[in-house]
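Technical annex B. To support the medicinal chemistry partners, we prepared a structural model of the target in complex with iron/sulfur cluster, based solely on the information shown next.
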Amino acid sequence: MKPPDGYPPEEGRYVRGNDYSPVAVCVILDTFDFAIPFELTQLVMAGADTGAALSGMLQTENIGLEKIVCNIVANPNLRYVVLCGRESSGHLPGESLLALKLNGVDDGKRIIGSKALTPQLSNIPVELVDRFRKQIVNVVNLLCRPGERDVKSPGLDPEVITEAVKSCYQEAPVVFQGYTLYDMGAYPEPAIFHKIASKLAQPLQAVEPGKSKMGAGLVLSRLLPGTNCRECGRKTCLAFAIDLARGKACLERCPILDEAEFTENRKALAGLLEQGTKDHGKY
Ligand code: SF4
């Protein structure tokens, strides 16, 4: 099945390979963008070279996972995700991906069973999550524990990733690390094309003149990384967002927004702040 025009809808730190392949490779990135370890890059390349449809890195348990869901449901050929690298003890994105497949999200769009700080998929409809869970038949879990350095561990070994990817597109079932894998054909429903950025770029209609800065902060906070890492000097992303709304902070104080996966969020935030300044003198 040919994916729709515009596929994959979300940008990110991934390589696009064979669109007709049934497998995507997801390598957990457990460091900052500017210090990506060579062994993780090798895993991404092993996936791409072996014929994965998408092979890339996942850093966060919220926006990062939302983008993965969008890109997967936009290509019904994708039926497996190979999860590898080592878990990031800060974000727990690997555990959150597994919990998402297993349990889905609750009424507040929080991933059920995830122990991450903010496993909240607020920017995508629940229908996308449901479709993702049905379309992906298995997340092949090769994830290593946080801090693992042994590159011969299965989840850090490019040869094992190569074997995992190959197993997913065999015509006859193959048993790989306890999983039965084969190319079962595309999911029998049309692609769903959903782009998070289109929503993020909407003007800040939720906050009108006279409404509280807290309300504006809540809207802005939805676009922040949600890690509460405190690098901006505030205890939470919401506190930073409220200061943004008050004109007491600037986007440059959040270094996480400089990471590739937040490019669209950063643009949207800048647009909203500019709009707020025009409308209210200061936002
Ligand atoms: S620097 Fe501040 S706004 Fe940015 S992710 Fe960390 S806590 Fe959130």
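Notes passed to the chemistry partners:
The two ends are 47 Å apart (CA to CA).
Confidence is low (pLDDT under 50) at residues 198-212, 279-283.
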